[in-house]
Design goal:
It is built from eleven helices and two strands. By secondary structure, it is mainly alpha-helical. The chain has a two-stranded antiparallel ribbon with strand order 1-2. A hairpin with a 5-residue loop joins strand 1 and strand 2.
Length: 474
């Protein structure tokens, strides 16, 4: 594995390890999860507060309607009392006019006439009969008064019932109108209700609240479930985005490392560099030697194998290139050994006679003579010397540039490995993640659309509930 312990070295000099990247991604995921949980809690609290506010608003509106009705009745009572006060004030002002003397005299004459009439009536013999008739008439008046009082009570009761009936008729008209509004609102939202499996709701004038309470609870539950689905879909989307980002970051890191490896390899494989020099030496060896060892010397031979081959060739050349002084010294030693042991120093066979001994010494003398010795021919020395110099020059060049060639070989192996990683982690997995990301994004959009529709439907149902509660209160 390349990115477990090594660092990624960019051109700008920054060093980012895989452990730092993993830690940063883990911190991002933890922070994202924390923020999502806080957002969900805040959203649920906001929904609860909104429902409480809606309930309080409905109660306050009902109280406001009751207060307005009381205020209107109080205003009517006040106006009626003001009219009575105006009438009383008018009567008092008319009764307090100035009294004239002629009016006083007329009143006196009228009083005298009334006194005379009184005396005449008191002296009338029918006085007792009249008193009886008066009592009879008083009894009749009492009876009539009782009847009138009873009729007045009946009239008041009828008036009260008439007012109540009028109020009932008025309320029935309002209930009818609001019921029509209620049905119209349900009809306007029939598509959303049908889309979310709530088309079965039926509202009647006798009980408009209970079905709508059930509908509101169902829609609220479905809305909360849809919000949870959106949250889970967003979590899956974020996970895929993080995986895709990590994969792209890994591929980018591989590409950057590949570029660095290729750049360094190109530097080592520059024209006239050590890598090309060793390659030229290998090709020259293959061309020059008729049958070099195929296990050691080939187009992709290792520098250490080439160096060992050149060393062997140099040793062979040195063994073949014997100098005259060395040959003469060896021949003198052989002659001395024969004089001591009277036997051949090569095969250890004893000489039978003096003639064999003379033949041996003559042959040794020929080999020690530079003019006739096969061991000291100048032509052979002239052939070996250039080859020996060439082999030594090649060995020196290979020794000097062996590290560069080894580094170049290692860079080629690393480049192949990184290319395989890019091929493995590249197109197929990235395309799969991108397709999965697109699918997750589509799913999130669908879930958000459903949640938005349910939020719209919940708002409409709350409004319908308010209308139904006003109907039920009336």
């Amino acid at each position: 594995t390349i990115f477990t312990s090594s660092t990624i070295n960019g051109d700008d000099g920054t060093n980012i390890s895989d452990e730092d990247v993993d830690a940063f991604l883990r911190a991002l995921r933890h922070k994202e999860t924390t923020l999502k949980n806080e957002w969900d809690n805040a959203k649920r609290k906001h929904q609860t507060d909104e429902d409480d506010l809606q309930s309080e608003i409905s109660e306050l509106q009902a109280q406001k309607s009751a207060v307005e009705n009381d205020r209107r009745r109080t205003e009517m009572t006040k106006n009626e009392a003001m009219r009575e006060l105006s009438m009383v004030s008018g009567q008092m002002s008319s009764s307090l006019t100035r009294v004239r003397k002629s009016d006083v005299d007329e009143a006196k004459r009228h009083a005298a006439q009334l006194a005379a009439t009184r005396d005449e009536l008191n002296n009338n013999p029918r006085r007792e009969d009249i008193a009886k008739e008066i009592r009879v008439q008083e009894e009749k008046l009492k009876s009539i008064s009782a009847t009138v009082e009873q009729d007045t009570k009946i009239r008041d009761q009828l008036r009260l019932q008439s007012e109540q009936q009028n109020e009932i008729v008025m309320l029935e008209g309002q209930v009818t109108q609001e019921f029509e509004v209620l049905e119209e609102k349900i009809k306007d939202n029939s598509f959303l209700l049908s889309s979310h499996g709530e088309a079965h709701v039926r509202v009647t004038k006798e009980d408009p609240v209970s079905p709508l309470d059930i509908l509101s609870n169902n829609v609220r539950r479905k809305h909360l479930d849809a919000e949870d689905e959106v949250s889970r879909s967003n979590t899956d989307l974020s996970r895929i985005q993080i995986q895709l980002s990590e994969k792209k970051a890994l591929i980018t890191s591989h590409m950057q490392r590949l570029q660095n490896l290729q750049y360094r390899a190109n530097q080592l494989n520059r024209e006239g560099g050590g890598v090309q020099k060793i390659g030229s030496i290998i090709r020259a060896i293959i061309r020059q030697d008729d049958n070099p060892s195929p296990q050691l010397i080939h187009a992709n031979a290792k520098p250490q194998d080439v160096l060992a081959y050149l060393t062997d060739q140099i040793n062979e050349c040195n063994a073949m290139d014997d100098k005259p002084e060395q040959v003469k010294r060896i021949i003198k030693r052989l002659k001395k050994m024969v004089k001591t042991s009277a036997a051949c120093p090569c095969c250890t066979r004893e000489f039978q006679n003096e003639q064999e001994l003379d033949v041996f010494f003559n042959r040794m003398n020929e080999l020690g003579d530079e003019d006739v010795s096969e061991l000291m021919t100048s032509q052979k020395s002239q052939q070996i010397a250039p080859m020996l110099q060439k082999y030594e020059t090649w060995r020196k060049s290979v020794s000097e540039h062996m590290n560069e060639h080894l580094e170049y070989t290692r860079l080629l192996a690393d480049t192949t490995e990184v290319e395989q990683l890019i091929e493995k982690d590249g197109n197929s997995e990235v395309k799969d993640l991108e397709a999965e990301l697109q699918s997750a994004q589509s799913k999130v959009n669908e879930k958000k659309e459903v949640a938005s529709e349910l939020q719209q439907l919940l708002t409409a149902v709350n409004g319908i509930q308010d209308v139904a509660k006003r109907m039920w209160e009336k």
